[in-house]
């Protein structure tokens, strides 16, 4: 059942139990979620996951473990004593997956292909588990454009490296375009929270477009890769053009995340911290401890949102 506004920018959000938009997956048949080492026959997915309401994704396994630990105290969830948090996907070394109450904290690796695989398997997991009304977040890092490093950017729209608002996937020998649409209401709620929540003060938060590239070096107009066939002026002209199109940050997964949230009919938001200002340089030279603190900023905002949602505020 799909309901909701149908204008060009609003995603259509599924109500009730998450249905798959794939007639080939039949509920009685075995479905192996290979990269997270789970399956609908090998595991009792409904009893393990039926209560999940939030999926939080981020690139690094360590950061998503830290986020899970942070959620234990932020949401005051009881973890059986002596057990600690368990990586539920430990049967595979591709991704990590933690469950803290109604929240999944899961790593997606770097780049669109890695996030794409994980996203398919998480949506199937939620479907097999009988979950309903699940909201997805990507908590990431990025390069900023013309904003103070350490700022947060909530993505208004994800664009590709040619500034197009859709992802192109080569499917059966043809290019298929999937539009990237994030939930504008969810983004506005996050923005309001960032401006008012005491946990989220001390840095700026922007609501802007995000450019998603297929590469960290040439894809993001860097001069410091192993190869480079353009000049510093070409780089700056391109970055200024991107900036003047309303883009505040550059990263490598938002486009796939946004278009797959839309295809799955789930609410989604992307919150990234910026690690440097790309109009001023290419290399990330900020000390490790400072970067660690900055990377906790998206986590604090999303944890605050979840906490408020669960307390009914
Ligand atoms: C941000 O950081 C990673 C590259 O360093 C990539 O996963 C991204 O989107
Ligand atoms: N991640 C990116 O993709 N780009 C940056 O510049 C920093 C983090």
From TrEMBL:
MF (Gene Ontology): uridine phosphorylase activity
GO cellular component terms given for this protein: cytosol
UniProt cross-references to CDD domains, sorted A to Z: UP_hUPP-like
Domain of life: Eukaryota
Region spans: Disordered: 1-17
Pfam families reported in the protein's UniProt record: PNP_UDP_1 (PF01048)
Binding site for phosphate: 94, 138-141
PANTHER family reported in the protein's UniProt record: FI09636P-RELATED, URIDINE PHOSPHORYLASE
Family that this chain belongs to: Belongs to the PNP/UDP phosphorylase family.
Record-given protein name: Nucleoside phosphorylase domain-containing protein
Organism: Elysia chlorotica
